[in-house]
Design goal:
- The structure is a single chain.
- The chain has 287 residues and is an alpha+beta fold.
- The protein has 2 domains: 16-164, Fructose-1,6-Bisphosphatase, Chain A, domain 1 (2-Layer Sandwich); 167-282, 3-Layer(aba) Sandwich (D-Maltodextrin-Binding Protein, domain 2).
- The protein is 36% helix and 24% strand.
- The chain is built from 8 helices and 14 strands.
- The strands form 3 sheets. The chain has a 7-stranded mixed sheet with strand order 3-4-5-6-7-8-9, sandwiched between helices.
- Helix 2 packs antiparallel against helix 3.
- The longest helix has 24 residues, at 23-46.
- It starts with a helix and ends in a 5-residue tail after the last helix.
Length: 287
């Protein structure tokens, strides 16, 4: 039976009982990062109705505000003061230039879903993933305006606020699945064969798109969506959510089933392993 390379590596790690970070060290990191995330969220909520300074980055749809920058600076200053030996990979330029995943790396998106932040003032999140030697140890995704914190430590499950999330459904027909997918990928494009994606859209129960990769991964972990498929995400978009999904028995890979490189842009497929196999074998054809 077909098994993705990422799943094979995941099973090898589980059999080896990989323990990259001591539990007491991870707990200290988790408690500290959680406190900072909640504090940053409170700052954003307090300032939500203040005038925004908005700029563009790579294109007119790639927005950045002074709140993105101030929030990232808030985290980087605290990390460098409290954990000077750790590295930082972040969206707005206050982190480090990294070419290796060795050591402890904080991967930060200060406001994931900036367009939602600007236009809706909701449906955005703070996302932090803490990795050691390439393995996700901690994931935090904070839905700021709804005051909902998704949190996970490796090997200890995932939580929505104080409620532990159940393991993902193991056997789910595609006809009953809700898939998070931007409609762009059903149109002619240079990334993925759109006719197969159109067939997938007709097959599943429904599709959704929320405009925040971090929240979309959190929704997969929570089980209110069954799969997330997209063709281009940065490390800070996915680092926290990957830990969450892994802790509820899901798997996050590139769209072709190969392992994610946490330092690079990636295509992304996040779901339970049964759905992943069906999608990779029958519906995903990269160009």
């Amino acid at each position: 039976m077909w098994t993705s390379p990422a799943l094979r590596q995941h099973r090898v790690n589980m059999k080896k009982g990989v323990l990259v970070m001591k539990q007491e060290d991870r707990q200290k990191l988790f408690d500290t990062a959680k406190q900072w995330v909640l504090e940053a969220g409170e700052k954003i909520r307090t300032a939500i109705d203040e005038p925004l300074r908005i700029d563009t980055k790579s294109n007119s749809n790639d927005l950045v505000t002074h709140m993105d920058q101030e929030t990232e600076r808030f985290f980087t200053e605290k990390i460098r003061r409290e954990f000077p030996g750790h590295s930082i990979l972040s969206e707005e330029g206050f982190g480090d230039n990294l070419d290796s995943d060795k050591g402890v790396i904080w991967i930060i998106d200060p406001i994931d879903g900036t367009m939602n932040f600007v236009h809706q003032k909701r449906n955005f999140a703070i996302s932090i993933g803490i990795y050691q030697d390439g393995i996700g140890e901690i994931g935090l995704i904070y839905n700021v305006m709804d005051d909902v914190l998704y949190a996970a430590q490796r090997g200890e499950g995932a939580y929505r606020n104080e409620k532990k999330l159940p393991q993902l459904k193991r056997e789910l027909p595609l006809e009953e699945a809700i898939i998070i997918l931007n409609n762009f990928w059903t149109c002619p494009n240079h990334k993925i064969e759109e006719t197969k994606i159109q067939s997938l859209v007709k097959k599943v129960r429904g599709t959704r798109s929320y405009g925040s990769a971090a929240l979309e991964l959190a929704y997969v972990a929570e089980g209110i969506a069954d799969c997330y498929l997209t063709m281009k995400l940065a490390p800070w978009d996915i680092a926290g959510g990957m830990v969450l999904v892994n802790e509820v028995g899901g798997l996050t890979t590139r769209a072709d089933g190969s392992p994610i490189n946490i330092l690079e842009q990636n295509t992304l497929l996040s779901c339970n392993t049964d759905i992943q196999q069906k999608l990779v074998e029958e519906y995903i054809e990269l160009k």
